[in-house]
Amino acid sequence: MVPKHEILPKEEVERVLEKYNITKGQIPKILESDPMVKKIKAKPGDVIKITRKSKTAGESIYYRVVVSD
Hints:
- This protein is of the alpha+beta class.
- The chain has one domain (4-67): RPB5-like RNA polymerase subunit (Eukaryotic RPB6 RNA polymerase subunit), CATH 3.90.940.20.
- It is 23% helix and 36% strand.
- The protein has 2 helices and 4 strands, in the order E-H-E-H-E-E.
- The longest helix has 11 residues, at 10-20.
- The radius of gyration is 12 Å and the shape is globular.
């Protein structure tokens, strides 16, 4: 039941930041102690793409930046 989590490559992070006209500091945060962050071996500063199933949209994509505890 856990949505798909993946680490975004740097090039894709830059595209996301440009698309939404935001900085990395404006992305919601996720702790490095989160079980899924540990499982995919993400490090602080990495941007995670979370793909959730949605009844209305089919799929919803969320972005989170990993921060230390």
